[in-house]
């Protein structure tokens, strides 16, 4: 029966019973679009903050970050330490979204620009969700099943597929019936489980290693591999490229992506939405300590002979198996069940958020436009069918998941997102702060930037060292550093948006009311915050800066 005994299974079973109870309670009042997709717009700041954290931190975070910690040390910590971007969401972006009364980010683009921009963003977002978030998240969860229950279903391969299909189907069911309210309230419980489980991995790992000092000594002896900052000559993580890419991806992900922003749109008022974002920013700082550091601990224990990690034929640690291996070899009975519950929580919270956001995009931005004036019950029913369709597409994509994990799940995810994010980031920032940007510029920027990003991704997949080396130009593009490529894609997207906007007619003033910085209701915004909001935001900034300073000089 693998490495779990009856106590572990009891803990996991209790978790699922609680989950079922929450979904049943949430499903009793899902009569309108507002109820189903935005939780009735009366959710509190604590649930919003924990949902932001749990939606972001999926199984690919737990498995992938631990793997990156073992393989590349603190290099990927920069993406986690951009928690301050959640403050940007709460203080800069949410007022625009809330005052415009939108349900989705594409809907906001239609109000600011036109329906074409809305359709393009909807299609890009839906494609990105199915082919990156679903595949990577489910792959990571299935890998945990394969490691923890290798013989339960006959073979490790069977355990992988059972884990993949079971989690996708179960998550789809509770998202379909519970709507966003179920997603938000289960996320609140899952965030707690996730934090506890990962804390125990870190605690027991350091205990076996001999303390934090031993970990510092191990990393100091390999500072080139494990340092937070890498030189500009580093082929994978040059510090300038990392800082540029992590901020561009962060603005897109935290401030403009339906998957995340939908949580804040469920708030009962603007103040609650902002406080939810501030609380989410506070929680977001900690994955460095509870997910990435355990990877470092695992590598140190492996080197010391206290832990046996899977290695490749060339002797390199298989990073994506570090976390599940630590669960099996470090934790006592009972806690293993808690941590497995935490991994399931992470997997299911990320997938449920993804499923609900995808259904929102399809129903509000596509179906409602094709068939306007239908009943609220029909739109909710279509939303549930859309969720089921995303579940099905995720299951069909499962056979490809093993092909996307080379180099580490987390690195793969950030690379692909680095090619999707720049045009969307450019259009939103320019659209909000520059009145002269028009629909023609926005549409051209979205299409042109996305085409360039997909061209770079295609070249990276098929051309370069170890792949096709001719023509030389395509090989050079394929090998060009992904971090710098993200920055250049933003530059090209901005140029396209600005040039096309200047060459075409400016938008009419009445189109910009409440949709650009100069047109906001400043009185309502000022009434939505007080001294506590400023103090807590400053505390998060101090925490981020403190983390950066500590890990810059810790080895």
Structural commentary:
This protein is 75% helix and 0% strand. The chain has 555 residues and is mostly helical. About 1% of the residues have low confidence. It starts with 5 loop residues before the first helix and ends with a helix.
Could you name the key traits of this structure?
mainly alpha, 0% strand, 24 helices, 555 residues
Describe the structure concisely.
The protein is built from 24 helices and no strands. By secondary structure, it is mainly α.
Order of helices and strands: HHHHHHHHHHHHHHHHHHHHHHHH
Roughly what percent helix? over 70%
User: Which regions have little confidence, pLDDT < 50, spanning 5+ residues?
Assistant: 36-40
Oligomer: single chain
Please give the number of β-strands: 0
Task: State the end-to-end distance.
Answer: 42 Å
Rg over CA atoms: 23 Å
Q: Report the biggest beta sheet as strand number plus sense, adding barrel if it closes.
A: none
Strand content: under 5%
Mean pLDDT: 83
Q: Helix/strand/pairing class, anyone?
A: mainly alpha
By DSSP (H or I, 4+ residues per run), the number of helices equals 24
Estimate the global geometry from the Cα principal axes.
globular
Which secondary structure elements does this structure contain, and how are they paired or packed?
Layout: H1 6-26, H2 33-38, H3 45-56, H4 59-72, H5 77-80, H6 84-100, H7 105-112, H8 115-148, H9 156-209, H10 212-220, H11 223-226, H12 239-256, H13 258-265, H14 270-284, H15 287-304, H16 322-330, H17 335-370, H18 376-397, H19 409-433, H20 439-462, H21 472-479, H22 482-503, H23 522-526, H24 531-553
């Amino acid at each position: 029966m693998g490495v779990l005994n009856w106590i572990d299974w009891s803990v996991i079973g209790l978790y699922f019973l609680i989950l079922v109870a929450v979904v049943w309670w949430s499903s009793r009042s899902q009569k309108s679009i507002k109820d189903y997709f935005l939780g009735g717009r009366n959710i509190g700041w604590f649930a919003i903050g924990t949902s932001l954290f749990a939606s972001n931190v999926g199984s690919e975070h737990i498995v992938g970050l631990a793997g990156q910690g073992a393989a590349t040390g603190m290099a990927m910590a920069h993406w986690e330490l951009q928690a301050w971007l959640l403050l940007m969401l709460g203080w800069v972006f949410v007022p625009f979204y809330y005052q415009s009364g939108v349900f989705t980010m594409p809907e906001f683009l239609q109000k600011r620009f036109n329906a074409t921009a809305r359709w393009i963003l909807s299609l890009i977002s839906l494609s990105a969700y199915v082919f990156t978030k679903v595949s990577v998240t489910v792959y990571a969860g299935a890998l945990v099943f394969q490691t923890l229950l290798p013989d339960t279903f006959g073979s490790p391969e069977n355990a992988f597929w059972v884990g993949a299909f079971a989690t996708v189907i179960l998550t789809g069911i509770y998202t379909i019936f519970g709507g966003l309210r179920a997603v938000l309230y289960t996320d609140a419980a899952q965030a707690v489980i996730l934090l506890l489980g990962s804390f125990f991995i870190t605690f027991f790992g350091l205990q076996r290693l001999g303390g934090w000092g031993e970990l510092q000594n191990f990393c100091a002896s390999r500072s080139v591999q494990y340092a937070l900052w890498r030189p500009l000559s580093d082929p994978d993580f040059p510090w300038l490229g990392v800082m540029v890419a992590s901020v561009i991806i962060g603005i897109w992900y935290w401030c403009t992506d339906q998957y995340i922003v939908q949580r804040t749109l469920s708030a009962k008022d603007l103040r609650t939405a902002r406080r939810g974002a501030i609380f989410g920013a506070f929680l977001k700082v900690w994955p460095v300590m509870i997910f990435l550091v355990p990877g470092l601990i695992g590598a140190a224990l492996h080197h010391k002979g206290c832990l046996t990690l899977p290695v490749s034929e060339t002797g390199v640690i298989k990073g994506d198996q570090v976390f599940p291996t630590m669960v099996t070899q470090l934790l006592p009975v009972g806690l293993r069940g808690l941590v497995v519950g935490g991994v399931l929580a992470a997997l299911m919270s990320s997938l449920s958020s993804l499923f609900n956001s995808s259904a929102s995009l399809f129903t509000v931005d596509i179906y409602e436009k094709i068939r306007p004036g239908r009943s609220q019950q029909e739109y909710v029913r279509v939303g549930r069918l859309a969720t089921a369709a995303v579940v099905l597409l995720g299951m069909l994509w499962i056979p490809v998941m093993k092909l996307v994990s080379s180099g580490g799940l987390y690195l793969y995810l950030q690379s692909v997102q680095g090619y999707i994010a720049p045009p969307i980031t450019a259009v939103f920032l320019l659209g909000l702060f520059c009145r002269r940007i028009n629909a023609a510029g926005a549409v051209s920027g979205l299409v042109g930037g996305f085409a360039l990003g997909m061209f770079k991704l295609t070249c990276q997949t098929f051309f370069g060292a170890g792949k096709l080396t001719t023509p030389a130009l395509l090989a050079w593009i394929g090998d060009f550093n992904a971090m710098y490529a993200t920055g250049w894609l933003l530059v090209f997207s901005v140029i396209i948006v600005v040039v096309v906007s200047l060459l075409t007619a400016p938008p009419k003033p009445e189109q910009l009311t409440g949709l650009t910085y100069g047109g906001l209701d400043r009185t309502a915004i000022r009434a939505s915050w007080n001294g506590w909001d400023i103090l807590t935001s400053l505390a998060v900034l101090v925490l981020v800066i403190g983390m950066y300073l500590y890990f810059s000089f810790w080895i």
